[in-house]
Write a structure and sequence with these properties.
Helicase, Ruva Protein, domain 3, 2 domains, 4-stranded antiparallel beta sheet, 23% helix, 22% strand
Length: 296
């Protein structure tokens, strides 16, 4: 699933191309693409028709387009990108993509918004906006997620405190979207390498200073990834114009198993982690000793 930098790249592209445009028609080409819209495809299309897109928003890894109040209330079009979902802007005359699932056309006859999804894990749905757990208005299904490090209202101290309250490993806490949002497997590994912390370090043994260091590292690495258009390992993640990001060339540990650490030269280690993988340097990030004491 795309992480914060990749989703922010898409959000910026949508903000450039679809804001203040009124929806003329919506076509659903595959029912799985609207399965999260429980009222069905017909209701989905009717909730969008004749609505104007007023804002492109993001929190963490979640992206939505706010709609004007011409419909039943304050609604948003929530995008679940999944593993291969793409929000593309395309001229109406361009040939359909092989895995086109939803087409949104506008009354100005300008570029369409197309949702393309090869693996059909993603989808679009319309939801009311509600007050989020971290403040602000969010689509109802994602109202529980925390603010992310790029949010101007993000509180580093509150996020550190939330991490230290968890009885788990530090990487699991970083991936918990109710603690801090936007960080996924790639940027968690990169942040932990920069902070010289092993992914299995217990949060109970994490000092406040270490918590601040690793979250600052996560913010730093995601800022750098955003500057390079995000991380693309294949053609499944692209921006709204179909272009890939290049941050994969700057990764220090993620996906670098058996290559020398850029800091000390020790071969990077790959460990199984939550049906995925975790990458770390055995020398720079030594595995922690078991401890029952509470860090300060």
């Amino acid at each position: 699933m795309p992480e914060l930098p990749e989703v922010e790249v898409v959000r910026r592209g949508l903000a450039d191309h679809v804001l203040d445009r009124r929806v003329a028609a919506v076509t659903v080409a595959h029912p799985r693409a609207v399965r999260r819209h429980v009222a069905g495809a017909e209701d989905f299309t009717s909730r969008l028709k004749d609505r104007t897109i007023t804002a492109a928003r993001r929190r963490g890894k979640y992206l939505w387009l706010e709609l004007d109040a011409a419909g039943p209330g304050d609604d948003a079009l929530l995008a679940h990108l999944g593993m291969s979902g793409q929000m593309l802007v395309a001229d109406p005359g361009r040939a359909d993509e092989k895995h086109l699932r939803i087409r949104v056309s506008f009354d100005d006859d300008g570029p369409e918004l197309r949702f393309v999804d090869q693996r059909t894990f993603g989808g679009l749905s319309v939801h009311p906006l509600v007050e989020g757990a971290g403040g602000g208005l969010l689509p109802e299904p994602v109202a529980h997620i925390a603010r992310d490090p790029m949010d101007p209202a993000f509180s580093l101290d509150e996020a550190v405190a939330a991490m230290r309250r968890r009885r788990t490993e530090v990487k699991r806490a970083l991936l918990d979207q109710t603690v801090v949002s936007g960080i996924g497997n790639i940027y968690a590994d990169e942040a932990l390498w920069r902070a010289r912390l092993h992914w299995a370090r217990p949060t109970a043994a994490l000092t406040r200073a270490q918590g601040r260091t690793v979250l600052a590292a996560a913010s730093e690495v995601m800022d750098e990834a955003l500057d390079q258009g995000g991380t693309s390992f294949d053609a499944l993640y692209v921006n709204v114009n179909g272009a890939s990001g290049y941050f994969d060339r700057s990764l220090n540990v993620y996906g670098q198993a058996d290559r020398g650490c850029r800091r000390c030269g020790t071969p990077i280690r790959r460990d199984p982690f939550m049906n995925r993988s975790s990458f770390s340097c055995p020398r720079c990030q030594p595995r922690p000793r078991a401890t029952a004491s509470r860090a300060v």
